[in-house]
Amino acid sequence: MLLQQVVVRGFVAVKFLAIGRILGPEAIGAVSIALLAVAIAESLSDTGLAQAVVQGHDAPTQNELGAVLATLAMRGLLIGLLLAALAPFMSSQFHLNGAVGLILLAAVLPILRGVASPAYFIVTRQRGFQKLAGVETSAAFTDCAVGLACALSGAGAYSVLIGLVAGELLKTVLTWTTMSPRPPLRLSFSGIGHYVNFSRWIWAGSVVNLLLNQFDKVVVAKLLGPLQLGAYQMSSKLAQMLLADAAIAMSQYLFPTFAEHHRRDVQGARKLFRRYLLLAAAGLALLVIVLRFAAEPLFNLVLGPAWLSAVPLFRIFVINMAIGAIIAVLVSWLRAAGMPKVATHASIIQAIVLCVTVPVAMHLWGVTGIAWAMTVGLGSAAGWMLFRIVREA
């Protein structure tokens, strides 16, 4: 999983940094608005079925897999159609200057994700990490290669989305051709009611996380437009690549691993959790110190002088992403231990903190204040999850 994450995030980094250098902040901001629309729609309709299949005591039957596929495919189609219908309105609201095509192209992504085979969740449950890595790496390479080719040929902001669609299409095809068991192709939604109790907390958490993860970007996009959003998004993205992505890879490994250990030996699983948490915290603290000192030369070298205005934001975002990385490990444990509601409660606390701090911070310090308010909110969420985990031990 770690090797997969290095390769996959490496391709993503090459793509976004190269295209960012070629196109500049405004084009990246325009693409970010289109992807923001997809993220909002997917968060509001998150079924939580993927996590429920991985965490459940028994593996799903063929009929249950078919119901999972039908549910996710219908969800993806509805999201795509909704985004396509709202594209003109969103273009006017977020200063896209009539670039409706960006949102229409982004609307293809949830449709492709929805029709991917749910056998992917079975492979995850069985911890078939080598097969997962092959699929994810192939998709990331396709995304990077197609995106860069389009950017160099003059496709502009569309190059990012064309690459994403190509990578997602390949991933969907590979889930059907390389993974088993294949679900039956029929429009049936029955037989997965027992997943609802678990998945409803995943959905609730996704809705709250929508506010937490996208609220700041919506504010910047609406008030300041694509240019400022491009600087904000790139500083966040670069910090994520250097810090949070490793924890995301670890959490993808840890969730099914914690779940397996928890089914067999609760005390042993708790020891394993503490070990990984300490390892992540120590490594992240060191990285934060190094990256804050190296921020300005890093931006000048990788993105060029046009992006130096984003350096102060980057120095804040490395702290945010480090806390977010810790949260990823905590959430993996909470879901594996059957306590997804604790993560949702933490997200609600974070949302309350943001509602209190963001207006004041934005008034006093502008976009930098929003970034610092995010830090306070993330710290509150992590603190609550640690408190509940310690109390449950």
From TrEMBL:
The chain crosses the membrane at residues 27-44, 65-87, 99-123, 144-166, 238-255, 276-294, 314-334, 346-365, 371-390. The keyword Glycoprotein does not apply. It holds the Pfam family Polysacc_synt_3. It is a multi-pass membrane protein. It comes from the Bacteria. Its main location: membrane. Keywords: Cell membrane, Membrane, Transmembrane, Transmembrane helix. InterPro entries: Poly_Biosynth_Transport. PANTHER family: LIPOPOLYSACCHARIDE BIOSYNTHESIS PROTEIN WZXC (PTHR30250:SF10), PST FAMILY PREDICTED COLANIC ACID TRANSPORTER (PTHR30250). Belongs to the polysaccharide synthase family. This is Polysaccharide biosynthesis protein. The lineage of its organism: Bacteria, Pseudomonadati, Pseudomonadota, Betaproteobacteria, Burkholderiales.
